């Protein structure tokens, strides 16, 4: 069904999904799975069924959305939240904080917010958390609040001892934490979403914008801006900072918090950045998947005698790239940096590894070092989309609007041929 765009357009219109962000294979598998489950004899029959069944439309959306989350993911974000939440309460004593998690998936994020604030000493009456997700199945699981081992990753897991009770089915979240969170089904593309609610002090919308095309990103940003109080903070995914920077937001200044506030002196809107390259699953990782291909053509390796050594080296390199991604996703920046250095020693310069080093430096607050690594990545691969995006964000933060604009224009030019090919 590679040439059948009906399902791609349906998912784009309903949930804003950009096929380039997940790859066509994921959508093909989801359609094939649902078509078989619905006993449709062919794709035309399944399309007819889809058009007339709200339940099947939701089932297809559920098949495409693969929840991948865990408690206290990006722990620095929760530490930053506790810090700014205490400051906000000191400024406005007696006014409870309102916090939104969107999308909330199966509940790990909104419950992490509640646990972090309770552990930081906030009283239950000082805050409330709303969780919204497009998936009724995910919201149902969040409401049940029983979690398996996969929801607890990294260390330490002392919060699990404080807030969960082991049962035969998994770990049951304590009622005190659950009482702080209100869950509901909702679509961020719905203009009436949370229409009756007051603006939130803090909004978590992490690893969502990357999956939208540029017009949808801007549409969603306007929704998020309306949901966030004028002096509130928006917590986003690590790869989404460049988008917010060019839309008039600035970092709050806490390393690895991935939190932004409105910039009172907004720079002129630059040329839109190219959308992020394809990812393999939802949600996006802290760093791109190790299988990402550089725009620069690679030398083709022929199967000649003695090629086994080259194949072994390539296999070792792929394993090391996977290790870098895993370490970075777990927030182990020091170990990820060491793995990057090991890769460069063993395999030589690589634009993706330099980009990873740049991102690790970036989130660690080492801006000049990050710039150097991003420029090395761009020297090897002048159209490296993420390096262009993040270097542009750094230049914008430093006031070099002209330099940032040039990088953004390069990113837009590099994406234009791909977009034209996609339209054909």
TrEMBL record:
Gene3D superfamilies: Tetratricopeptide repeat domain (1.25.40.10), Vaccinia Virus protein VP39 (3.40.50.150)
Listed InterPro entries: Bact_Chemotaxis_MeTrfase (IPR050903), CheR_C (IPR022642), CheR_MeTrfase (IPR000780), SAM-dependent_MTases_sf (IPR029063), TPR-like_helical_dom_sf (IPR011990), TPR_rpt (IPR019734)
SMART domains xrefs: MeTrc
An example Gene Ontology molecular-function term: S-adenosylmethionine-dependent methyltransferase activity
SUPFAM superfamilies membership: Chemotaxis receptor methyltransferase CheR, N-terminal domain, S-adenosyl-L-methionine-dependent methyltransferases, TPR-like
Keyword Methyltransferase among UniProt keywords: yes
One GO term (biological process): methylation
Keyword set, alphabetical order: Methyltransferase, S-adenosyl-L-methionine, TPR repeat, Transferase
Record-linked Pfam families: CheR
PANTHER family, per the entry: CHEMOTAXIS PROTEIN METHYLTRANSFERASE (PTHR24422:SF19)
Name of the molecule in the record: CheR family methyltransferase
Lineage, opening ranks: Bacteria, Pseudomonadati, Pseudomonadota, Gammaproteobacteria, Pseudomonadales
């Amino acid at each position: 069904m590679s040439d059948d765009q009906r399902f791609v357009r349906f998912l784009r219109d309903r949930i804003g999904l950009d096929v380039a962000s997940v790859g066509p294979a994921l959508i093909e598998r989801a359609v094939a799975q649902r078509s078989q489950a619905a006993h449709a004899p062919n794709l035309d029959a399944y399309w007819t069924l889809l058009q007339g069944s709200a339940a099947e439309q939701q089932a297809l959306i559920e098949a495409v959305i693969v929840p991948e989350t865990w408690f206290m993911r990006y722990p620095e974000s929760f530490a930053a939240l506790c810090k700014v939440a205490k400051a906000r309460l000191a400024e406005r004593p007696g006014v409870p904080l309102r916090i939104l998690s969107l999308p909330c998936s199966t509940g790990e994020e909104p419950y992490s917010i509640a646990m972090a604030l309770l552990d930081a000493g906030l009283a239950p009456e000082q805050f409330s958390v709303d969780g919204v997700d497009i998936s009724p199945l995910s919201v149902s699981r969040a409401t049940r609040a029983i979690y398996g081992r996969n929801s607890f990753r990294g260390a330490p897991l002392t919060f699990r001892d404080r807030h969960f009770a082991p049962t035969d089915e998994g770990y049951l979240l304590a009622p005190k934490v659950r009482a702080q969170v209100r869950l509901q089904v909702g679509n961020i593309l719905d203009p009436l979403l949370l229409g009756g609610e007051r603006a939130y002090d803090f909004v978590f919308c992490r690893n969502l914008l990357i999956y939208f095309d540029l017009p949808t990103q801007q549409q969603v940003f306007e929704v998020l801006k309306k949901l966030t109080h004028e002096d509130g903070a928006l917590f986003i995914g690590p790869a989404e900072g460049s988008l917010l920077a060019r839309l008039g937001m600035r970092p709050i200044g806490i390393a690895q918090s991935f939190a932004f506030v409105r910039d009172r002196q907004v720079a002129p809107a630059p040329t839109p950045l190219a959308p992020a390259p394809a990812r393999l699953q939802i949600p996006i990782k802290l760093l791109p998947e190790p299988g990402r291909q550089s725009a620069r053509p690679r030398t083709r390796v022929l199967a000649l005698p003695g090629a086994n050594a080259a194949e072994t080296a390539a296999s070792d390199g792929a394993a090391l790239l996977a290790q870098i991604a895993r370490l970075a996703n777990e927030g182990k920046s020091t170990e990820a940096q060491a793995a990057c250095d090991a890769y460069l020693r063993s395999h030589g310069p690589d634009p993706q590894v330099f980009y990873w080093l740049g991102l690790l430096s970036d989130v660690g607050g080492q801006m000049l070092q990050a710039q150097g690594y991003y420029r090395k990545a761009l020297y090897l691969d002048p159209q490296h989309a993420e390096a262009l995006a993040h270097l542009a964000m750094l230049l914008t933060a430093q006031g070099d609007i002209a330099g940032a604009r040039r990088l953004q224009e390069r990113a837009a030019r590099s994406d234009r041929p791909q977009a034209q090919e996609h339209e054909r």
